[in-house]
Amino acid sequence: MADALLETVDVVKSFPIRKGFLGRKQLLVAVDGVSLKINKGETLGMVGESGCGKSTLGLTIMRLYEPTGGQVLIEGQDLAALDPAGLRKARRQMQMIFQDPFASLDPRLTVADIIREPLDIHSIGTVAERKAEVRRLLRITGMPADAATRFPSEFSGGQQQRIGIARALALQPKLLICDEPVSALDVSVQAQILNLLRDIQQSFELTYLFISHNISVTAFMSRRIGVMYLGKLVEIGPSQSILNKPLHPYTQALLKAIPRPVPKRTREKRSILGEIPSPINPPSGCRFHPRCPLAEEICKHKVPEMRELAREHSVACHMA
Amino acid sequence: MRRNRDGADLNVPLLEVKHLTTEFVLMAGVVHAVNDVSFEVAQGEVLGIVGESGSGKSVTALSLMRLIQAPGRIAAGEVILHDGDSQQDILQLTPSELGKVRGNKIAMVFQDPMTSLNPVLTAGFQIVEPLKIHRGMSDQAAHKYAAELLEQVGIPEAKRRLRQYPHEFSGGMRQRVMIAVALACSPKLIIADEPTTALDVTIQAQILDILRDLNDNAGTSVIIITHDLGVVAEMANHVAVMYAGRIVEYGSVDEIFTSPKHPYTIALMSSIPVLGSMPDRLTTIEGAPPSLMGDRPPGCPFEPRCQARIPRCVDEDPALSLIAPGHLAACWVAQAGGR
Predict the structure, then answer these.
(1) Could you tell me which residues are beta bridge partners of residue A42?
(2) pLDDT value at position A262?
(3) CB-count exposure of residue B122 (10 Å: 0-12, 13-18, 19+)
(4) Which helix (H) or strand (E) holds A121?
(5) B52 at A interface, C-beta within 8 A
(6) Which residue of A has its CA nearest to B170?
(7) Cis status of the peptide bond prior to B71, with omega within 30 of 0
(8) Is the CB of residue B268 less than 8 Å away from at least one CB of chain A?
(9) Which member of B53, B269, B280 has the closest CB to residue A186?
(10) Rounded to a whole number, what is the distance in Å from the CA of B287 to chain A's nearest CA?
């Protein structure tokens, strides 16, 4: 894949934590050796349950977290090797959309200020040009022109998310990291934002990392889907084969657990037992083994490697 | 004859809600959060109430238990609870009579177990309390039964867990404790308000299993309130769709999902991505729900956003009426036989 826009190689992000006042230091490994590639113009969906590390992965790629290990390459360029000025320039190429649109907009700035801020910071264009750009971005994201002089609190959640998208587009990035962009929205509004994200992807040839706990939404958005569990990427492949032929027992369980909007009790009971273990002291070997119906002796001792079992479809499971 | 999914009789009424109207009196005006809502829940039935934020589904649930606090008030209506041959209107009960219903005959499970469990009392205390109050159990007997309840909802090491505080449980485990508290007095009806919204899907599946077992085995009726159409499709016998403080469509789960008739329900169904059939674009509902503050405009509340509207919708508000056996819709177009 020569035209990978984003590549991560064994990215690790861990946080030192201390339990209690004099407790000993422990390491919470939130992202543990994730390697993936996203091609130009493609959407990679990343799904997993809370605490699986999918958001931390997004923030680490953005370098909002300093990676503990591994490399993040944008168009082949290692971000970690850049000096602060170089990093700032490279950051223009990637932007992020957050889950809670209101919390991620400064309540004391007008919408125009919010959208213009990245242009100001990077000194792009004249004052008049920036103003025109704000108007253009509002139009693209389906906001009324008079929104510019108003404050974020005057808008609904869906509109706030549109403002967040307009801000993210201001620097004409190549990569958008969407971290649960519709989780806080009602379903009818969710549909509007998902359609908008697909439209702007086509118009601006954007590449997306789409992070969500909602597999149906992710499948709508993504050509390929990755599945994370306890900091590890456990499976990655084309959306269709992930949905139709999931190879990892966790992915299988996850898909079975989703209630479908079809009025038949199609979901099997007891499809998955137990809870996600603590990432501070994760299980040995395959991290899914304590909950896995297929687990055997090897799973307790040996960490499974990613293996490509079908075209573009890789899984980290001894039993697959 | 109404039947549930297993063919069991659903004709013995348990709860009848008639013309329930709840409003919030604010400085800026009166918010009509729930407007003339009527429905029934039979013994052994699971009723799903779906709707988006602000549709009035949670306020409806709180009104049934009279948990509406100032500046909110229940302005009109009846909530008739049947118990054998006797019946009582919950809205007319004295505080002490109400105390005998709450947590005893009707119990509630909320969305966020952390804010609805008392953080300074052990899980055990909170399960034992209703047993002592409503069932007059001794402390020892109540603790023994509480441990059984925790096991029933899938909490291992129940005896040890009884001594722990809510913060020592994970989100999914806390929700199990909530359900155990709700189950303690074997209520006839459990009202579950977004019980799995805060949970991961694999944990959601486990919690839904518990509610399903409870309905299957003990015949407990359940009102499940959710924005998730998948959860409703899986759990409910009947579905009420709420919009702008009112029920706009009601019917069996099969009717509602296979042949929805209200344009809002139709739009809602097609706005969610469904695994297995991915369109290029999702259907959206343009605009936003109307403000519920002040006097309502004369027409149908969905009219400004409706794709199927006819001139009549602007001036006249359609009542919820029968459009097919067991299927009601508040829509002039649906009542005239559809588009």
Answers:
(1) none
(2) 85
(3) middle
(4) helix A111-121
(5) yes
(6) A275
(7) yes
(8) yes
(9) B53
(10) 9
Whole-number Cα distances in Å, A260 to A287, B180, B212, B228: 28, 27, 16, 9
Smallest Cα distance from B90 to chain A, Å: 32
Interchain pair A190, B172: CB under 8 A = no
pLDDT digits (tens, 9 = 90+) for B92-131: 999 999 999 998 999 999 887 778 899 999 999 999 998 9
Sheet holding B106-109, edge to edge: B106-109, B189-193, B221-226, B46-50, B238-243, B246-252, B327-329, B321-324
> Is pLDDT larger for residue A97 or for residue B3?
A97
Query: What separation, in Å, do the N-terminal and C-terminal C-alpha atoms of chain A show?
Result: 25
Please indicate whether, in this complex, the C-beta atoms of A217 and B53 are within 8 angstroms of each other: no
Within an 8 Å CB–CB cutoff, is residue B91 touching chain A?
Answer: no
| Overall average pLDDT of the B127-147 stretch | 92
Tell me how close the Cα of A191 comes to any Cα of chain B, in angstroms.
6
CATH fold, domain A4-93+175-186+206-315, is: Rossmann fold (3.40.50)
Which tokens is A124 given? 């792009």
Record the tokens describing residue A42, joined without a space. 């493609």
- The ipTM, to two decimals, is 0.84
Label residue A272 by pLDDT band (50, 70, 90): confident
Residue B265 sits at the chain A interface (C-beta within 8 Å): no
pLDDT, tens only, B216-256? 999 999 999 999 999 999 999 999 999 999 999 999 999 99
Mutation target to probe the B interface, by most B beta carbons within 10 A, among A188, A215, A228, A256 is A188
Residue B224 lies in a domain: no
pLDDT at residue B3 tops 80: no
Q: Which residue has the higher pLDDT, B202 or A141?
A: A141
- Tell me if A6 sits within 8 A of A38, measured CB to CB: yes
Residues 235-264 on B with a CB inside 8 Å of A are: 235, 253-254, 256-258
Nearest chain A alpha carbon to B211: A269
pLDDT of residue A265: 62
Alpha-carbon distance B120 to B118, whole Å?
A: 6
What are the residue ranges spanned by the domains of chain A?
4-93+175-186+206-315, 103-172
Contact B273 A220 (CB under 8 A): yes
Tokens of A241: 């084969």
Query: How far is the C-alpha of B141 from the C-alpha of B138, rounded, in Å?
Result: 5
For the ranges A60-69, B13-22, B150-159, the lowest mean pLDDT is seen at: B150-159
Answer whether residue B89 is part of any domain: no
Per-residue pLDDT at B65 exceeds 80 = yes
Average pLDDT of the segment spanning A307-311? 93
Lookup: tokens for A5: 């826009």
Minimal CA separation from A218 to chain B, in Å: 9
Residue A1 has pLDDT above 50, yes or no: no
Q: What is the DSSP string of B143-157?
A: HHHHHHHHHHTT-SS
DSSP string spanning B55-92? SSHHHHHHHHTT---TTEEEEEEEEEEEETTEEEEGGG
Q: Answer yes or no: is B156 within a domain.
A: yes
Parent domain of B139:
106-186
Q: How far is B169 from chain A (nearest CA, A)?
A: 11
Q: Say how many domains are in chain B.
A: 1
Q: What is the pLDDT of residues A257-269, one digit of tens each?
A: 988 888 876 667 7
Nearest CA in chain A to B203: A275
